[in-house]
Task: structure prediction
Amino acid sequence: MSTATYELLAASSDAVNVTVAFVLGLVIAGALIAAVRIGMRVMERESDRPRAEDQPHLPSSGAVHEEREVREPDEIPLNDGGTPRLMPYELHHSGSRRCDDQNRRRWMPGSSGSFGGGGPGHV
Result:
């Protein structure tokens, strides 16, 4: 194969590559335009956005505040002395119950600190 033939083949493959890239660019641009038009049609079919009057309002009694309570775990009785074991359907939905003493537990002075923190630890 001569050099002239090689140069002709290289020039023609460059022209084909440019043409293919241009056509693919047109296809991608057309797909993007179609996607935008479809999205606009979908938005037109959706219901209107809620107005300010449709938004939720505070109840007449005022804002609702959180409620804090101290909980303690529900102890599951052990199967001692041949009593029938507790079945899953006998358990209630919560694993804890309201504690009689509603005072929050506080740390005793000098008992806090992390492991290896250099403090005296629980005294």
